[in-house]
Design brief:
Blueprint (H helix, E strand, L loop, with lengths): L1 H16 L5 E2 H8 L3 H14 L2 E3 L5 E4 L1 H9 L3 H19 L2 E8 L2 E8 L14 E2 L5 H7 L4 H7 L15 H14 L2 E4 L7 E8 L5 E8 L2 E6 L3
Parallel strand pairs: 4-10
Antiparallel strand pairs: 1-3, 2-3, 4-5, 5-6, 7-8, 8-9, 9-10
Length: about 230
């Protein structure tokens, strides 16, 4: 019984995924061949879970932000590394500064891959380093576009004061994330490391999903990867 229901949900998701511009209820009905009452129940359930959503407020359904986030979180680190490598190197060649990739894994933003220019004065970002929500430009740029429940979960514990400039007031952090969404960039002004000023700009994969951002800094540049 459960297997049959799951197969029907999977059929609807596969049908919608094959149509990037979305499908109406009638189009899904014809494409799947399922009964109208069944389609109504399946669509309602998928909407409630965030696995699908209406496009631009119309009754045209596309894959939802929650499902897209799950798909992006499942991308292997090696794949992210290989995809980012030429972009990171291009940034290094252009700005003569360190470039790195940071990804959202579970509820933490971590550095994944890095490219470094020749020289000994540039900042170094250790792969696997956790970027704190309240102090790193990369984490701010990513978490600004996550669901409020995700942000609340990260802010549930105490916030570490890395430098004298670190923001540890949680309401202040939330206000800054709102500012990031308005300005379309995040800044770290010596909040994580002394002497380091950094800036991060989100880049969208689709109109609904924030998956990446270009990060520019006095001492470092990064590419950020995430999803909403």
């Amino acid at each position: 019984m459960i297997k049959g229901i799951l197969n029907r949900y999977a059929l609807v998701l596969e049908t919608i995924a094959a149509a990037p511009c979305g499908l109406t209820l009638t189009e899904i009905l014809h494409a799947t061949g399922l009964p109208q009452g069944t389609i109504h129940r399946l669509i309602t359930g998928l909407l409630d879970t965030g696995f699908i959503e209406p496009s631009d407020g119309r009754k045209v359904y596309v894959l939802g932000s929650r499902l897209l986030r799950i798909l992006h979180l499942g991308t292997p680190t090696q794949v992210l590394d290989s995809l980012a490598a030429p972009v990171l190197q291009e940034l290094v060649d252009r700005f003569k500064e360190t470039a790195f990739l940071a990804a959202l894994t579970d509820s933490a933003v971590q550095s994944v891959a890095m490219a470094v220019p020749s020289g000994k004065t540039q900042a170094y970002v250790q792969p696997g380093r956790v970027m704190p929500l309240h102090a790193a430009a990369s984490a701010k740029a990513i978490f600004a576009y996550q669901d409020s429940a995700v942000v609340d979960g990260v802010l549930a514990g105490p916030l570490k004061k890395f430098t004298a400039r670190s923001q540890i007031d949680k309401n202040g952090v939330r206000a800054e994330l709102e500012q990031v969404r308005r300005d379309r960039f995040a800044a770290c002004r010596e909040e994580l490391d002394p002497g380091i000023f950094s800036y991060a700009c989100p880049v969208q994969l689709t109109e609904r999903t924030i998956v990446a951002g270009l990060h520019d800094a006095t001492n470092k540049i990064s590419i950020l990867l995430s999803s909403r």
